[in-house]
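User:
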Amino acid sequence: MAAARDGHSSTLPKLSNTANLATGAVARTGAGFIMMPITVLKVRYESNLYSYNSMFSAVKGIFQREGLRGFFAGFGATAVRDGPYAGLYVVFYEQSKRRLSLLASRIEAESGTSTQSSRLSSSTSAGINFVSGVAAAGLGTTVTNPFDAIKTRIQLMPERYGNMVHAARKMFVEDGARSFFDGLGIRIARKAISSALAWTVYEELIRRAEGRWREGVEQVV
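Assistant: Predicted structure:
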């Protein structure tokens, strides 16, 4: 199996923190807009505040009561949540990998387990990517959870929580600051594992593909 190059576990292009923040935010916000109707349907269908018997009845009920606009309820809060989350995730993820890679390189060099001082073993790289994914998801989720709580309230009760600012004010007055961190533990658990697995598998697939490509080039030459 191919090893990581340049003493770093990542196979992704190296960007600045600002570039990582911007690209992550733009990509996630765009995807969030496209998926918003499905998100609204999921939240409404799972809630006991609505008596939808099927997804079709949920679609029909939302359209009749709120029109097309109803399928994008809470998009403002979602964008404010997803944009920073994705950007911060990429920044935290890359910074964590960079620091852990340097530490792992020293440990492997000192223990004599590394055959090349400038490379990390594949198992070490995968471990670093997974740990970095968990840490980045935990930090990003904690920072953006208030917007997730606001988004959920708007999607469940759009008549009561008209917009992001109104919802935030109402939540703070009625339920206090703790309400902005409702569901944080569950969200961290879900985000941390899913994000870590996704990015670890993604980078491993890229690493394997690059290894096969280099082998093919060497055979041709």
